Amino acid sequence: MSDLGAIGGEVEDAIERVRVPAYVIDRQGVIRWLNPAAKRRLGDVRGRHLTSVVAPEESRRALEIFTRNLIGSPAGSDNRVVAIDADGNRFAAEVSAVPLTSGGHVIGVFGQALDIEESEPPPPHRALTVRQNEVLGLLERGHSTAQIADELHLSIQTVRNHIRHILQAFDAHSRLEAVAIARRSDAGAPAPSG
């Protein structure tokens, strides 16, 4: 920050004016600050818990990501989430977040978010559990078993079990076939029966 101080810039004012949604969440997960771009996208959600702005099936994962950003690497993390906009519509976003510190102590999380697709993400499949829907979403993005295990903080064996259940639910013989069936199936409709 000494370089920024040296040029005399007003960083807080710039963050307010930047057109990328930015936010601050306190240690308890309460949204404390949004720049105008974030308010336009989400509405004025200050004072609400972070889980109130993500899709219901994303709540647990959002809390896990938030906790990792609080107690994990100072470098923070980049993640995809399905959020709910000010009109109640679902949208996918790439969120980049870092721990926010004061006096050497983590006091919250600062982040920015970008929409990653224009169309509304599909709702979760009722034939799958919340965690299986998360795994399916990562399979759709081309993640390997190891990448899914790392992102969801699960063992590789647990991820394999979830994938096995997904294949069974869609009566599929491969991951690719399961993803194709999931995309073809009626949004949220039960999986085809054997």
Description of the molecule:
This protein has 194 residues and is of the alpha+beta class. The chain is 39% helix and 21% strand. It is built from 8 helices and 5 strands, in the order H-H-E-E-H-H-E-E-E-H-H-H-H. The protein has a 5-stranded antiparallel sheet with strand order 2-1-5-4-3, with helices on one face. A hairpin with a 4-residue loop joins strand 1 and strand 2 (31-34). Helix 5 packs across helix 7 and helix 6 crosses helix 7 (156-169). The protein is elongated and about 60 Å long.
Radius of gyration: 19 Å
Q: Structural class of the secondary structure composition?
A: alpha+beta
Distance between the termini: 60 Å
If helices are DSSP runs of H or I spanning 4 or more residues, what is the number of helices?
8
Shape category: elongated
- Characterize the largest beta sheet: strand count, sense, and whether it forms a barrel: 5 strands, antiparallel
Percent in strands: 15-25%
Mean pLDDT: 84
Element-by-element helix/strand order: HHEEHHEEEHHHH
Number of strands: 5
Oligomer: single chain
* Share of helix, binned: 25-40%
Neighbour order of strands in the largest sheet:
2-1-5-4-3
Pick out the low-confidence regions: 186-194
